[in-house]
Amino acid sequence: MERKDLVISGSGSASGGRYDLIKISGTGKIHGDTDCNDMAIYGIATMEGNVKAKAAHISGKARITGSLKTEQAKIHGNARINGDLQCKQLDCHGRANVDGNVSADEVHIHGEAVIKGDCDAEQFHARGEFSIGGLLNAGTIQIKLGGHCQAKEIGGERIEVKQQGMTFLKKLLFHVGLTAESIEGDEIYLEHTSAKAVRGNRVVIGPGCDIEIVEYQDEFQCDPGAKVGMYKKV
Questions:
Q1: pTM for the full predicted model
Q2: Are β-strands 227-233 and 78-81 bridged in parallel, bridged antiparallel, or unpaired?
Q3: Cβ distance 53 to 70 under 8 Å?
């Protein structure tokens, strides 16, 4: 069945269904589940139902009341997804709010992401701010601190948290650091991180950290500018 394009450039609404391209540059509402090849939101869009798209590009403001499943999600504007987000690659340069879980091969956060559930990925890279209400789980986790980042629990094979360069004024006005209840991995390097427990094979606690307990198997190093309540080899 041939797929048609759905283009809303002013103000309008349409029913869900199968489309080739969905492009909204004005104010648009789509009622029902949607399946399309490409979705481009430049204006304000409300999509009532689940959305499936090969590629989703949100430069304006979009609200999806269901879940979003796509190969590539690029968010340069503001996106709210009431369900889950499942994709191969997530690039967030704007703001993303996901009420459910995020599952992806690669996650890149350059803006701000708020995920109420879990975030599961093979690669997780962040240079902005994020809040994850559940578990952040990824093979490689690389965080360049540029604001406040938090997750309830973090697990991975390689976890690296470093503070990137910033102005004195930003350091003075904003909290810059990572907060988590527990962090577990094979290789862990942390800066400016607060956690109750850190467990790993090789653990390096860098400057600005405040950790209640560290458990390690092979190697442990601690910067003089860090605070560690207790550490032990297990």
A1: 0.93
A2: unpaired
A3: yes
172 pLDDT above the threshold of 90: no
Query: What is the C-alpha separation between 220 and 137, in angstroms, rounded?
Result: 22
Query: In the chain, pLDDT over 70 holds for what percent of residues?
Result: 96
Give the Cα separation of 178 and 145 in Å (integer).
Answer: 8
**What is the pLDDT, as a whole number, of residue 127?**
94
CA torsion angle for 124, 126, 131, 137 (degrees, to 10)? 20
pLDDT classification of 164: cutoffs 50, 70, 90: confident
Distance CA 50, CA 98 (A): 13
Alpha helices in 91-200 (DSSP H): 168-173
Fill in the amino acid letter for 129. Answer: E
Measured at the alpha carbon of residue 67, what is the angle toward residues 15 and 73, in degrees to the nearest 5? 95
- Alpha-carbon 60 to chain mean position: 19
List phi, psi (to 5°) of 172. Answer: -75, -35
